[in-house]
Amino acid sequence: MVEDVGSFISHYSHLFQVHKRNVSERASQYLKGLLQSRQRNMEKMAETVPDTDEQSLQQFLSDSPWDYQAVMNQVAEDANVILGGKDSALFIDESSVVKKGNHSVGVSRQWCGRLGKVDNCQVGVFAGLSKGSDVCLVDSELYLPKSWIESTERCDKARVPAEKRELNSKLDIALRLVKRARNNRLEFGWVGADSFYGRDKTFQKALDQSGETFMLDVPNDFRIYTHDPKPYLPVPSKKGRPPTRYKTDLTSLKAKQWVKQQGTKAFRGYTFRDGAKGPMKVEAIHQRVWVWDGRSAQANCWHLLVRRDGGEDIKYSISNALSTTSTHRLLYMQGQRHFIERSFQDSKSHLGLAQYQARNWNSWHHHMALIMMAMVFLLKQRAERKDNYPMLTVSDMVLIFSNILPSRMNNLQQVVEIIEQRHQKRRRDIQLKSQQGHNLCRWAEYG
Q1: Are residues 212 and 327 in the same domain?
Q2: Mind listing the pLDDT tens digit for each residue in 26-61?
Q3: Strand, helix or coil at 313?
Q4: In terms of CB atoms within 10 Å, which end of the chain has fewer, N or C?
């Protein structure tokens, strides 16, 4: 299995050619650090992986100009071999990382899904290719808030490329990820996303007009029509400009109001996929409804799927799948989004997705590209062993590689060297703090 890591890296080697220098050895060290270190910061990775050091890893991540998008594209191509197909999905989701300071690129007080509140954090929008219970992240972009776009100084310090200094919403980024996935010839049957993306009718319309089938979660106050609203332009008056805003004579309903009108007896029982504890049984209502954005000349007739897992836990989704699509199929499509959440949990808990030391634009995207490399590598390893070990998880694979890859921690002499390096660093920190304290006293004395 150790040889598998080397073979995998050689497959990507050409993507780490920087001018006349190839930095694929640094990529290999970083990847091994993600697979075998208990903590995935530079210091701990350098203490674990032989023949490397903290400074070289940091330079590779922050300063080396290798193309992260080319690496992500290769990951997408490799993942597609295993996960691509008509029964696969491309899921759009975001992940946030809490930050204390204000210097890391894109950091701002914004909604942090990890905490469920507004806090100081970075937010990345991700695309994950999914089939069954397997998901691999294949693309990502960091979201830049308006406060960053308006600050040339902050963007300069974080080395944000000129072409990225435009205000893009997370929805804009999401559509770009879907388009790039198609340009990379990824095979998937539908696009899925949570209610942050699903509630936006412009996002729905953009996917529909680009020929994508979608299954999008929506909030319970999402407005629908039970009949075609037949939008029309009012008769122009003799004075003034001709009307341009469409109207309807029908009144829309909130999705939760419509469900209440149906009554509890309208829910029917379904079994839509196997879960960890056996077949998953839910109750659902499925109805064709009309969705109108209030601006277009026509409304869209789409599926409204309402799922109840027990008690008051109700999930609402909208899909533009073919009108003949069964409730059972729609439930399967809706339920698959669970696995993108699990993919984030695995990559954060076992691969260090949120443990990076990256302040500038390239270093953030470099780290994410390397995380995706680690994910597709483990995906391949699990796929090759699926017949003999069908229940292998990311946690299992990381445990294996953390024990079979060469480690500095298994060599007593190198452990002694690591301890000496730690002590030197502590002494430097103590001296620095002492000097800062001395300077502060002098400033107070002579102020």
Answers
A1: yes
A2: 999 999 999 999 888 888 899 999 999 999 999 999
A3: coil
A4: C
| 436 to 101, 367, 429, 443, 445: CA distances (angstroms) | 20, 33, 11, 11, 14
Nearest Cα residue to 64 out of 14, 9, 18: 18
> How does DSSP assign 202-224, residue by residue?
HHHHHHHHTT--EEEEE-TT-EE
Q: Residue 129 and residue 187: Cα distance in Å, rounded?
A: 9
- Measured CA to CA, the distance from residue 22 to residue 27 in angstroms comes to 10
Query: Does residue 217 fall inside a structural domain?
Result: yes
pLDDT in tens, 319-378: 999 999 999 999 999 999 989 999 999 999 999 999 888 899 999 999 999 999 999 999
- The two tokens of residue 240 are 């003034």
Residue span of the structural domain in which 414 resides: 2-66+351-422
Indicate whether 384 and 288 sit together in one domain: no
Q: Burial code of 57-84, b = ≥16 C-beta within 10 A, e = fewer? A: bbebbbebebbbeebbbbbbebbbebbb
Q: Are 403 and 38 in contact (CB under 8 A)?
A: no
Structural domain tally of the chain? 2
Of 349, 365, 384, which marks where a domain is finished? Answer: 349
In a domain, 189, yes or no: yes
Where is the domain boundary, 321, 349, 377?
A: 349
